[in-house]
Specification:
Helix content is 9%, strand content 39%. It has three domains: 101 residues, 2-Layer Sandwich (Alpha-Beta Plaits); 200 residues, Jelly Rolls (Sandwich), CATH 2.60.120.200; 163 residues, Jelly Rolls. Strands 16, 19, 24, 25, 26, 29 and 30 form a seven-stranded antiparallel β-sheet that branches. A six-stranded antiparallel β-sheet has the order 17-28-20-21-22-23, with no helix packed on it. It has a six-stranded antiparallel β-sheet with strand order 35-46-37-42-43-44, with no helix packed on it. The chain is built from six helices and 46 strands. About 10% of the residues have low confidence. One of its GO terms (biological process) is cell-cell adhesion. This is Cadherin EGF LAG seven-pass G-type receptor 1. Keywords: Disulfide bond, EGF-like domain, Membrane, Receptor, Repeat, Transmembrane, Transmembrane helix.
Length: 658
Amino acid sequence: MIYVHEAAEVELTEPYVASHYGLHSVVALCTLRVTIITDDMLTNSITVRLENMSQERFLSPLLSLFLEGVAAVLSTKREAVFVFNIQNDTDVQGSILNVTFSAMQPGGAPGKGTFFPSEELQEQIYLNRTLLRLISSQEVLPFDDNICLREPFGFTGDYCETEIDLCYSGPCMNNGRCRSREGGYTCECLEDFTGEHCELNASSGRCIPGVCKNGGKCVNRLAGGFMCQCPPGEYEKPYCEMTTRSFPGQSFITFRGLRQRFHFTVSFTFATRERNALLLYNGRFNEKHDFIAVEIIDEQIQLTFSGGETKTTVSPYIPGGVSDGQWHSVQLHYYNKEGGSLVDSSGVLRLPLYTAWLELNQKEPNIGRLGIPHGPSGEKVAVVAVDECDISMAIRFGKQIGNYSCAAQGTQTGQKKSLDLTGPLLLGGVPNLPEDFPVRNRDFVGCMRNLSIDSKPIDMASYIANNGTYSSKWNTYSCDCPTGYGGKNCEQVMPSPQFFDGQALVSWSDPDITVAVPWYIGLMFRTRQPAGTLMQANAGPASTINLMVRYSKFSEQQVRMEVLLRQQLVASLGFPQVRVNDGEWHHLLVELRSVKDGKDIKYMAAVSLDYDMYQKSVEIGHDLPGLKLQTLHVGGLPGTDNHCQQRICWLHTGCAYG
């Protein structure tokens, strides 16, 4: 394989290898692939460092494994990954190989696709180093920490001491308000206006590509203006964005990191019942690097941040804590003590009032010739506030006025003048990490909404199909589906539900179904009756599975499952904590599965209610697997003789489908 720059000329002849010995000879044709290295490929490339690796070892089957691993991480084709430089690292001890590559995004035509931007490529590879190691059998080291402090965009001067106000040119149109931020600006638009510069008027303008987010369809109105028709789900008009997400545990959402910063603001709202959790993390996954982490520690918010040298914790205090299941807001303000001017070109405060107050009152800033504070220093400040809080009052007079501690600040001094937050920004958790990871918690169970970075709302899109109404839950989510659709995300087309008036049932005889393992049976139902039979499946000559709503004097009306053999109860379980005769749709699924117990095999029935929100399992013996289904009854049972047994002869009143 040969890689050449796009400006080069290549002339090839058909190569071959020949070997002659005695009476025999062997000739092999060689395939020579030539890939043109384009400027686009170089611009969007990254270099990773492989531990205990050399050029000779890498140019073997390991190269193919590396390509397969990168392709798997990026969900792209193996042929879309281009390795075009491998060099032994001579600046360090040990065998370290530097490998430079780029990759094309999936879905593009051969030779005409779009490359992953280098920032996104680096974050995806770093976030999935474990997966890459498993596939490629090669250890990818953390990206080089010896990054020179380059002049960040938006700063000037010999020492990056002066921040440029990028709102000076008035880039926001239609009376939009310009909010300067590090390295750029954000336009806050008036109602009916959108776009990066508030240039689009939804009342009089016309559709342009990308104005409707998350697959929304833009429709021009006949009388002028346009509107977005959003996909089914909790997408918010007018532009089909989403502000709320549910975290079931062991999950997280990834955003592009804050990168190298002198100041920033982050705010969000959350609700949880967890006493300890990780809400937000940005940085690399190594305690030697810069990072920020917002956690819940013993029901209180705690920020931990590091410039790579020491760790600082900031701990506001809220009476009663934040783990009460109610919505709570967090505001994080980070800034360099002497970095950034306080007013923009029009004289309006660039920082929030309380942050500006801290700048001016907690330490005398470095005053320039124009009387404006400027220039970064080694002193870094982080302020954290919870819920409605007078931040300046809490920090300055909180102790004097009676433990008013809804806000707190922490400072850190070191040689570095910026916070280098290279790496993804993660909400709700982090991937598997080493034990020495510098935060206590790894995930979060609950809901988050209204994430904002530098005063810019962040789209937290997810997808719920077919007009389902999304409801956040602590351990999962549920969708109230319209008639004709079912499934956890309303993605399954379902026949019309059957109504049962207490005197009806639906039955099948000899449906030609074998109880194989794994085997599934389930339905959706809703009722307001205290008791009734949902489903009964009879297999073989004497085995029965009953699903029912049953009343107990010790609990609310609950779902129960029973397995009987020759009318004798073999196994049963129920969900006494869940009231199901509430008139709402509930999903019930039974899975028969096998489990190894040493050399033996046990058969279990795993029952889930409302899409794994509630789960239980029970051993069912060895009689059911392999039997053919004889009859299946939904909504009730035929006859009321002694064969039915009183416990299961109630008829269901309500609706069912599935």
